[in-house]
């Protein structure tokens, strides 16, 4: 019956004949929880029993991917991974139709998750992870570089040397022409850091070492990051106060759409308060800056805009220095971000642990006791869910050994270890279906050591395993 429901959703008429064959032979296998293979209904032809399939987008560091043991994981790129259990990506703008029904988790190898439809993933019960701090040093170094690029006319000087070289005049003119490219020093100047997270705090620290006076603004400053700030930093309670006397302004905040978000936070009000000649460093996201307002400021008051994001208005402005999105493109950052993402996904798939999620609550239980099976259940964050889940176990005469329930926003996450003594697999299969089909439950998993198996979803009243 389950198979026919799924065939209904995945019409076989869409599959070429050889796929039909594979489907038929697979359907002949008698499958039950805890015994051998588990049914899966992505593209049956790309399903490898006994393995988790990881779908990747973008260039993901092989060092990170090597954290997935090949005996339990297969890695496939976007197009070919039609049966994915998890997605690993960088800046790829993820569309909902790229998230197969089989997907249990998504990890962004990096910081910003504005390229992932996070709110929709929460509705679907899918945790989205990122890798806090893994690429922060790379970005911080480029911000420091950006301050120098905005101070010393390095780019103009390089272009000039090319032009001289082409005319064979470089030796004759190199000393005379240097007067055209004078600059200023960072020492003694004021840097305003907007957003004192992993990148902002590190930038503030290094700027102090360079002899700069540092102002900082972050209304949600964490204790962890506060401890990393330089002693001399002057914190402000508003962005305007931080930027108005600054010679350099570094944006290190996430891009968040919608009301209360950060779209165009650097708009008319902030820009018109900026000092003449101020250098704006945007290694965060292009959408944070209102380019029209900034262009007006650059035209009238000088200064520079240095960024690693494209800009339709400023891309050829004489005061803009725009680079490809290179902030995190170092070997070290790519390795660290992909490794952290891989470990986070493994932990989630193999034990149900949640850390570094941007939409799910941090959750971990001690190791599963002997003779137990682990259930994880994702529900809407509404009253009574925990009681209904516990009742379902009690109703099947299953004893809970340990459990945890955490919530965040609209989602609640439960991890429950259940005693297996004296029970057969059918008990677990039945209770999973009962729990998954409770009103308010989004998905469930049974984690018992067989990769790729044990997942079920409540698709608005349809049971999907
Ligand atoms: N250019 C590149 O290649 C990269 C860009 N990024 C961008 O940089 C951003 C920051 O990265 P991390 O420092 O690693 O993140 P993080 O999460 O450690 O820090 C962000 C900080 O911004 C603060 N914040 C949020 N909204 C704010 C607001 N309106 N005003 C002031 N502070 C605010 C938060 O409280 C937090 O402390 C990312 O969200 C991403 O957009 C990150 C990595 C690479
Ligand atoms: O981590 C981030 O937020 C970044 O912007 C880095 O992007 P990337 O992984 O280099 O495409």
Automatic annotation (TrEMBL):
Pathway: Amino-acid biosynthesis; L-serine biosynthesis; L-serine from 3-phospho-D-glycerate: step 1/3. The keyword NAD applies. Signal peptide: none annotated. Keywords: NAD, Oxidoreductase. SUPFAM superfamilies: ACT-like, Formate/glycerate dehydrogenase catalytic domain-like, NAD(P)-binding Rossmann-fold domains. GO terms for molecular function: phosphoglycerate dehydrogenase activity. InterPro entries: ACT-like_dom_sf, ACT_dom, D-isomer_2_OHA_DH_cat_dom, D-isomer_DH_CS, D-isomer_DH_CS1, D-isomer_DH_NAD-bd, NAD(P)-bd_dom_sf. Its EC number is 1.1.1.95. It catalyses: (2R)-3-phosphoglycerate + NAD(+) = 3-phosphooxypyruvate + NADH + H(+). The keyword NAD applies. It holds the Pfam family 2-Hacid_dh. Residues 374-449 form the ACT domain. It comes from the Eukaryota. Belongs to the D-isomer specific 2-hydroxyacid dehydrogenase family. PANTHER family: FORMATE DEHYDROGENASE 1, HYDROXYPYRUVATE REDUCTASE. This is phosphoglycerate dehydrogenase.
């Amino acid at each position: 019956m389950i198979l026919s429901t799924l065939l209904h959703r995945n019409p076989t008429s869409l599959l070429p004949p050889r796929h039909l064959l594979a489907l038929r032979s697979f359907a002949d296998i008698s499958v039950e929880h805890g015994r051998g293979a588990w049914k899966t209904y992505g593209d049956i032809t790309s399903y490898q029993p006994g393995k988790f399939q990881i779908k990747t987008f973008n260039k993901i560091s092989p060092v990170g991917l090597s954290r997935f043991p090949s005996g339990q994981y297969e890695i496939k790129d976007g197009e070919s991974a039609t049966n994915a259990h998890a997605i690993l990506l960088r800046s790829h703008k993820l569309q909902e139709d790229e998230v197969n029904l089989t997907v249990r988790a998504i990890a962004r190898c990096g910081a910003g998750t504005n390229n992932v439809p996070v709110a929709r993933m929460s509705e679907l019960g899918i945790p989205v992870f990122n890798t806090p701090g893994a690429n922060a040093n790379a970005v911080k170094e480029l911000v420091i570089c950006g301050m120098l690029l905005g101070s010393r006319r390095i780019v103009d000087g390089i272009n000039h040397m090319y032009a001289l070289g082409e005319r064979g005049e470089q030796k004759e003119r190199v000393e005379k022409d240097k007067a055209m490219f004078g600059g200023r020093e960072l020492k003694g100047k004021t840097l305003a850091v907007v957003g004192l997270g992993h990148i902002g705090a590190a930038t503030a620290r290094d700027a102090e070492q360079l002899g700069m006076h540092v102002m900082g603004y972050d209304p949600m400053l964490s204790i962890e990051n506060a401890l990393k700030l330089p002693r001399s930093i002057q914190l402000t309670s508003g962005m305007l106060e931080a930027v108005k006397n600054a010679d350099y302004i570094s944006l290190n905040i996430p891009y968040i759409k919608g009301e209360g978000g950060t779209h165009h936070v650097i708009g008319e009000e902030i820009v018109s308060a900026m000092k003449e000649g101020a250098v704006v460093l945007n290694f965060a996201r292009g959408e944070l800056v209102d380019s029209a307002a900034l262009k007006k400021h650059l035209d009238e008051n000088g200064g520079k805009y240095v960024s690693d994001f494209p800009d339709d208005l400023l891309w050829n402005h004489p005061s803009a220095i725009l680079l490809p999105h290179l902030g995190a493109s170092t070997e070290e950052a790519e390795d660290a971000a992909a490794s952290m993402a891989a470990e986070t996904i493994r932990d989630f798939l193999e034990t149900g642990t949640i850390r570094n999620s941007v939409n799910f609550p941090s959750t971990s239980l001690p190791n599963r006791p002997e003779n137990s099976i682990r259930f994880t259940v994702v529900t809407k964050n509404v009253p009574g869910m925990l009681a209904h889940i516990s009742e379902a176990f009690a109703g099947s005469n299953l004893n809970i050994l340990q459990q945890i329930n955490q919530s965040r926003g609209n989602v609640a996450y439960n991890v429950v270890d259940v005693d297996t003594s004296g029970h057969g697999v059918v008990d677990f299969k039945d209770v999973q279906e009962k729990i998954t089909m409770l009103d308010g439950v989004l998905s469930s998993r049974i984690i018992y050591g067989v990769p790729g198996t044990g997942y079920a979803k409540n698709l608005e009243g349809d049971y999907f395993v």
